[in-house]
Structure formats: structure tokens, C-alpha cells
Design a protein that fits this description.
By secondary structure, the chain is mostly beta strands.
Length: 828
């Protein structure tokens, strides 16, 4: 063996990230070859439907693709060095040209139905990467029924065959092929007899044989393998690997007659892509709409990705007593202990009123702007001046004075009382728990006490669930378990389990719902029911626990939402941050940092002190940056993040007022580009939402969706040469006409003002004003020639009007470009 001077290094990169780990298992192996040499190879196991790129480097900085392959479940060998190389050719023998490096091709092959027979072959095109399906004359040997996967080299190709089994209807006519596909198919058809012989003899080769030649042994080499699980060859919305697994198991099918086939987008010919009818993880969400087809704990369907406008907020009374915000609600109201902030306006709370409450402090707010708090009473007779009684109070709106929460003991469930008040003295709840204490229906939990007849102290009565007055209904009270702390409504309540809590253990989580699950290992701070009925429970920020989902009768850590601490109604979650993932938000199952979802946010909002505190059903987010001091008066700064979605409007679809889940899908030809954050591999990523504003009189209809309302509006402004009609968003769902006012093309930044005055620190929207262009197109009707030399004519050749309409529909709204098509003579 030569004195080898190279270093080997094998790494795996998964693009993009996914909850499932697709990094292949591998090992080093010495493989003997027919020429008596031995190659030391790194052999790794492929997954069917996953693409792999083997890259090589001399210095770990520049990488070159050595080979690309499409996995079909077999092994692949990467040659790294050679032992006992074969003897050189005899003297005088002319040098032999180096062997051609084989091209890897993965195909599906099945018998063709019908009297004509033959076989149907499908593969990802070598010319354009799209699916190709053709019928060939070669028949498959019966032995194929026992061989689902076959891999071997024929000529210049490493053919990887997948044989699902049943016969398949052949295409009506083979499509025209590019030069690479045509050359490959010719080699395949020539090799069919030899392939059938090897199949019949069960000569199965499970890995590339022989492996590629190793590099120069005197050189230094590093290897890595890129793994891409996102391939969707037939573009039906279901990834190839998921369709292979469904084909193998027979499970995960939502519609009878649909089968997993990575190379056929509509296996039951019903006109609906299979991705809408396949469910690889069997969670009830079709693969095409599933953020992760391998994670059955995440069932919220994917949707348009929002970008966020960031607005700074301030407490108008920044004393050390009330320095921080407590919550944000779905109206955009930020609650402090002493007031509220909304759209740049500070509203102080009335904290001292006549009667029993001499001083009050807010604790929680719901989405109706009702506020719950604590009132202090230090004027009870018979006790020293320093005695303070805590009475629960509420503000019906931020501008109302606080009122005491009380009711007569005569209306209570007396069986739960430790002492029955004979005189009907009022009962008061107090010492409210921290956290989301006020549900949207006005419900909250509290210990309930009765004031002694002589007003000298309090008598504990019971634990109860109170409901604040609304719509003319009085305050109500019902008995409840002391374990309960929070409530979305009566169908979903949660708290801690006393049986799981001791002096040395954390509180276990108890959840009451339609299907009450077992105790959690932590006390949840938020609990929701996902589409399909699974329950997602989230811990508080900084907890060592991970978010879990109750599914299939047990709690399971959610791969997608493991780091979630709160979530909106459409599945967008905020998470625990770190130095690597700062202020993370989960969008369509992928965690994004603040610089991605809030474009051009100032650097001060990108540092490691930035974290997210709270989110609402509509998606408002409360954010904080800075470190809380032990001493001093320098406190963290706070901001609200407003999610903004913008979509083109298809005139053929019904438009607002519609609400999820009846919303029409995004209109991809509508002159709005908001897909960049989900682009494959992040290539060409543009973080802002771009809107095309046509110059020349026309306008572009854009649908804006944001959690805005009449009291919390957003003003749209831009350069004087761009106009918005209307220029103010005051509803959750609105159509705005965007137009340019000059003739030349230019780029503009949309200014966003919350409440008409407060500027966004991030830049989520940009405008591309484009002048009108007209393109004249000459169209020639063409015919083709089939294998027998006969003319082939398309069954339908579009009229010029149809072509104009189609092209204008696509390019008119996207680029303000319109077409005039004229038909000319036929060409052969």
C-alpha cells in the first residue's frame, strides 16, 4: 500500500431542516473489485425518495459535487482510497481511456395494461427535473414480482429500479424527450433483455457496483453528503419519500383508490393532486397542506407566511412599581399594571376609587378588553393600619373605574362551603394566580372568602370559577377544583394536579377537556386543541420541559412545537430563544429568527437579549429586549409585532368578507411575492413582501390580512408616486388597490404607521412600480413525428384569444406586461 497522506471526513447536511432525521447510517468497508484491487469506501444507507449529493474538498472551504443520486433504499459506496491496486498494463499497450463515470438514474417500472402490452417507465427528467412517464415495448419478466428494488449498471448508467407491482394504464402518447432523457431511454430499452435475465436469476446488486474510482492517494480529501428530503418529483404536494413509504405500507391514504407514487401526481385520475389525498403521518392533514408530513403532532395546515411590523411601546408612567407589560390581547391592547397601550395611545387605569378599594393593580386582560386585577383595602375595622385585604376587581373597559367582584352567599352551592353564611354577607375572591387568568368568556378561578360579620377578617369558603358580567348578565359563580388555574372556556381548563405535587417536585399539569388526558410532567401555561382534536400543552419560557401533544392515548414531545411557549389560533407559535435562535417564531412548521420574519429590523432588536413574551389568537406578539437589572432604573424595552399577510386577488374567486377556514387560497399570479421565505434551500431569499404596482392607470388588487380593528388601525404610506386605496387598514380582512402614478419603473418602501402616527422599525412591505409593456408574439402551429414517421397533431391548439388571456392573466398582474399573439403558418 502506498504511503497515504489524505484525511477523510464524512459529514451530513440535511436541507432543509425537518423534525425527522434523514441523515443516513453508514460505515467504512473494504470492497474487493473484479480487477483484484480493494477499495476502502464509506457506505451509507439511502432512503427511497430522498436525494443525496456527495461532495469533496481539499480544504473544507471549497466543495465540488462528486456524484448525485436519488435514493431507492439501497446502499451507496463512496470510494476514498485503494489498496493493492491492479498491475499496470503490459509495456507497449496503448493507454486506455478512463472509464466513463456512470450517471445515476432512478426509475419506476410497471407492466402496461391493455392489449398492446409493454412497460410503463417513469423517472425525474435528466433535462428539466420534472416527472416523465413513457411506455416502452419491452416486457417485464415475471420474476420482477419478487424484486421490488433493483440496482445495476448498464452502459453509461447506474439504473435504480423501483417496481411497485400492479399493472398501470400507459400514457396516451409518449411526450417529446430532451436529449439526455432520450439517450437514457435508448440505453434502457437496449438493456431490457439483459435486465430481465438478471432479474430471473435473482442477481440482485444492492449498491453501486463498482464504486467510483478513488482519488489520487497522495492527495488530501474531505467528503460530505448533502441530504435533500424535499423532492416532490410529480409536484403533487407530497414529498417523494412520503409517497414511497405510503406505497410500502398501504397506509396514509385519505381517498380510496389513491396510492403512493412519487412519479404520478394523480393516481386515481380524479383531477385532484395526490398530495391533497395522501397523509403520510396519518394526522388528518393532507401532505400538500402539512407543515411536516412526518410529524403527526403538528396538524395546523400551512398558509401564507406573514411578515411582521415592529412598533416600540412605552409605559407613560415608567415607575419602578409598574415597569413591564403583562399581556397583549387580540385587539392589540398591551396591559400594564397601571394602564394600557394601544396603537401608540396610553390609557391610564383608575386605581383609586371610593368605597372598599383604595388602590388597585391590573393582572390580566381578555380579547374583549375586560381587565381583571387586585384591589387593596387597608381600612377594615379592628385591624392595624398595615393590614391589607386583597379583593378581586375588574375594569369592564380600560376607561371604566374598577368594580369589586362579589356576590351574595345565598346564591352559592352551599355543599362546597366550609362555613355557610347565614346572613348572606358578600363573598370576595382574591389572591389571583399569575398568568393568563382571564378567559374570553370572562371566566377566572380564585379562592373565595367571606368577610366576617364584624368586618374583623375573612373566612375561607371554597374555590370557585367566577364569570364577569357581560351582555346584561350579572356576575356568576360556580364551584371548582382548587387544582384549576386557567380556562379558555368550560370545554378546556387546566391547572396543576395536587397528587403529583410535593415540596420537592414541580407541579404536574392537569387538563380537563372532552378527552381528559393523563397528568403532564409540568404545569402548562397554555393549552390548545389542534385541528383533528389533539391537545397541545406548552410550558413557560425558560422551562426545562418541552411542549407536548396528547395523541394516541399518551403525551408525546412535539418535534415541531417542542420549544413553543405560546401559539396563535392558526398554529403560528412563539418559542424559547437562544444565542442561535433569537426570538423564534414557528411559521409553517419551520422556526424563523427575528431578522427573517421582521425584515430590516434594527440591530438592537437582533441581539441575544431579545425574547418573545406573549401572542394572541390573531397573531400579535409582545417582545422584550434588554436585561432586568438587580439595581438601578435601566429596564428592558418592549415592542409589539404585527403580522401582515398580503395576497393577490383572483377576480374569479369570491373575496372578503371571508374568514378561515373558508379563505380562498393565495393567488400565485396576483402580483404579490411572499413565498421567498419558503423557497427551496433559501436560495434567492427576499424577506419582504413585494407588491407590484402597475403604472399607467390600472391598479393591482391586494388582500391584506392582519389582526387590526377600528381602534387599532394601520396607515399605509409610500412615495408620492404610489397610491393605496383605501390607505388605512382597520379590519382583519381588506382589499386594497395599489397603483403607480408615473411611467418609469422604480422600487419603493411602504411606510407603516400604527394608529396613524407610530412608525414601524421593520420593513415588511416593498413596492415595485412597473410601467406597462406590450409584447407582440408570433405563434406557429407545429406538428411532431412519432417513432413510425407519422405526423402527430395536438388534440387542442389554443386560439390567439385564449393565449392572450392566459399570458395576460399570468404576466399582467405580475409584471404589468401584456401580450398580442398572432398565428402564422404551420411548421413541421
Amino acid at each position: 500500500m502506498k504511503n497515504l497522506k489524505f484525511i477523510t471526513f464524512v459529514a451530513f447536511l440535511c436541507l432543509p431542516a425537518i423534525a425527522r432525521d434523514f441523515r443516513p447510517a453508514g460505515h467504512v468497508e473494504k470492497i474487493p473489485l473484479a480487477n483484484s484491487s480493494v477499495q476502502e469506501c464509506y457506505v451509507f444507507q439511502t432512503t427511497a425518495g430522498v436525494a443525496y449529493t456527495v461532495e469533496v474538498s481539499n480544504n473544507l472551504s471549497g466543495w465540488t459535487a462528486q456524484d448525485e443520486l436519488y435514493g431507492l433504499g439501497g446502499e451507496y459506496a463512496v470510494a476514498m482510497r485503494e489498496f493493492t491496486p491492479p498491475p499496470p498494463p503490459p509495456p507497449g499497450t496503448p493507454p486506455v481511456n478512463p472509464p466513463t463515470l456512470p450517471k445515476n438514474v432512478s426509475l419506476r417500472i410497471q407492466p402496461a395494461s391493455g392489449a398492446a402490452g409493454g412497460s410503463v417507465v417513469a423517472w425525474p427528467s435528466l433535462d428539466h427535473a420534472g416527472p416523465v412517464i413513457v411506455r416502452i415495448a419491452g416486457e417485464m419478466d415475471q420474476a420482477w414480482n419478487q424484486i421490488p428494488i433493483f440496482w445495476n449498471r448498464y452502459g453509461d448508467y447506474n439504473f435504480s429500479f423501483w417496481h411497485p407491482g400492479p399493472v398501470i394504464v400507459p400514457p396516451l402518447g409518449n411526450p417529446p424527450l430532451g436529449p439526455k432523457d432520450a439517450a437514457m431511454l435508448a440505453a434502457l430499452e437496449t438493456s431490457i433483455p439483459e435486465i430481465n435475465q438478471q432479474i430471473a436469476a435473482s442477481l440482485i446488486q444492492v449498491r453501486n457496483a463498482p464504486p467510483p474510482a478513488p482519488p489520487d492517494p497522495d492527495s488530501k480529501r474531505f467528503w460530505r453528503v448533502k441530504v435533500d428530503w424535499s423532492l416532490d418529483t410529480d409536484q403533487d404536494g407530497s414529498p417523494d419519500w412520503a409517497e414511497f413509504e405510503i406505497a410500502a405500507s398501504g397506509a396514509g391514504v385519505l381517498v380510496p383508490g389513491v396510492v403512493g407514487d412519487a412519479f404520478n401526481a394523480d393516481t386515481n385520475n380524479d383531477g385532484i393532486p395526490d398530495g391533497q389525498q395522501l397523509d403520510a403521518d396519518k394526522d388528518g392533514t393532507p401532505d400538500a397542506n402539512d407543515p411536516d408530513p412526518n410529524d403527526n403532532t403538528a396538524t395546523f395546515p400551512i398558509g401564507p407566511v406573514p411578515r411582521y411590523a415592529l412598533f416600540p411601546i412605552t409605559n407613560a408612567v415608567p415607575t419602578t412599581e409598574w415597569p413591564f407589560p403583562i399581556q397583549i390581547n387580540d385587539k392589540g391592547t398591551v396591559l400594564y399594571a397601571n394602564g394600557t397601550w394601544k396603537a401608540g395611545v396610553w390609557t391610564p387605569l383608575a386605581l383609586e376609587v371610593s368605597g372598599q378599594i383604595t388602590h388597585a393593580s391590573a393582572r390580566g386582560i381578555n380579547d374583549s378588553d375586560a381587565i381583571l386585577g387586585i384591589g387593596y383595602d387597608n381600612a377594615i375595622s379592628g385591624y392595624p393600619d398595615y393590614f391589607i385585604a386583597y379583593l378581586t376587581c375588574y375594569w369592564p373597559t380600560p376607561t371604566d373605574p374598577p368594580a369589586i367582584v362579589e356576590t351574595s352567599g345565598e346564591n352559592l352551592d352551599r355543599s362546597h362551603h366550609l362555613a355557610t353564611p347565614a346572613d348572606g354577607n358578600a363573598l370576595f375572591p382574591f389572591r389571583l394566580e399569575s398568568g393568563p387568568i382571564l378567559a374570553n368568556d370572562g371566566g377566572f378561578y380564585s379562592n373565595t372568602y367571606r368577610l366576617r360579620e364584624d368586618q374583623s377578617g375573612w373566612i375561607y369558603q371554597h374555590y370557585s370559577r367566577w364569570k364577569l358580567p357581560s351582555n346584561g348578565q350579572p356576575i356568576t359563580e360556580t364551584s371548582a377544583s382548587p387544582a384549576l388555574r386557567y380556562s379558555k372556556d368550560l370545554e378546556l381548563q387546566w391547572g396543576f394536579d395536587p397528587a403529583q405535587t410535593t415540596a420537592t417536585t414541580a407541579a404536574g399539569g392537569s387538563i380537563i377537556s372532552a378527552a381528559t388526558p393523563p397528568v403532564l410532567p409540568f404545569m402548562p401555561t397554555n393549552v390548545i386543541v389542534q385541528p383533528g382534536g389533539s391537545i397541545l400543552a406548552m410550558p413557560h419560557d425558560g422551562s426545562e420541559h418541552k411542549a407536548q401533544v396528547f395523541i394516541d392515548g399518551a403525551w408525546k414531545v412535539s418535534p415541531t412545537y417542542a420549544d413553543a411557549i405560546d401559539i396563535s389560533a392558526n398554529g403560528i407559535a412563539i418559542g424559547q430563544g437562544s444565542d442561535l435562535t433569537r426570538a423564534p417564531i414557528c411559521l409553517n412548521g419551520k422556526w424563523k429568527v427575528i431578522s427573517e420574519y421582521a425584515p430590516e429590523v434594527p440591530d438592537t432588536w437582533k441581539n441575544s437579549t431579545v425574547r418573545l413574551l406573549d401572542t394572541t389568537p390573531g397573531g400579535w406578539v409582545l417582545a422584550e429586549k434588554g436585561v432586568w437589572p438587580r439595581l438601578g432604573i435601566s429596564f428592558p424595552e418592549h415592542a409589539v409585532l404585527l403580522p401582515i399577510r398580503a395576497d393577490g386577488v383572483d377576480p374569479a374567486l369570491s373575496v372578503p368578507p371571508l374568514v378561515p377556514p373558508a379563505d380562498p387560497p393565495e393567488y400565485i399570479y396576483g402580483g404579490v411575492d411572499h413565498t421567498s421565505m419558503t423557497a427551496h434551500g433559501g436560495k434567492g431569499k427576499v424577506p419582504e413582501i413585494w407588491i407590484m404596482a402597475p403604472n399607467g392607470g390600472a391598479s393591482n388588487s391586494v388582500r391584506f390580512q392582519s389582526p387590526l380593528n377600528a381602534d387599532c388601525k394601520l396607515t399605509l404610506e409610500s412615495d408620492a408616486d404610489v397610491g393605496f386605496t383605501p390607505g388605512e387598514l382597520d379590519k382583519k380582512d381588506m382589499i386594497v388597490q395599489v397603483k403607480g402614478k408615473k411611467t418609469d419603473s422604480a422600487d419603493f418602501t411602504a411606510k407603516l404607521k400604527l394608529g396613524g402616527t407610530l412608525d414601524s422599525l421593520s420593513v415588511p412591505l416593498k413596492i415595485k412600480a412597473m410601467k406597462k409593456r406590450t409584447v407582440k408574439v408570433a405563434v406557429h402551429k407545429v406538428f411532431g413525428i412519432d417513432a413510425n414517421g407519422n405526423q402527430t397533431v395536438p388534440t387542442h391548439f389554443p386560439t390567439m384569444s385564449e393565449l392572450d388571456t392566459y399570458l395576460n392573466e399570468v404576466f399582467g398582474r405580475q409584471a404589468n406586461t401584456f401580450f398580442q399573439c398572432t398565428q402564422h403558418d404551420e411548421k413541421g
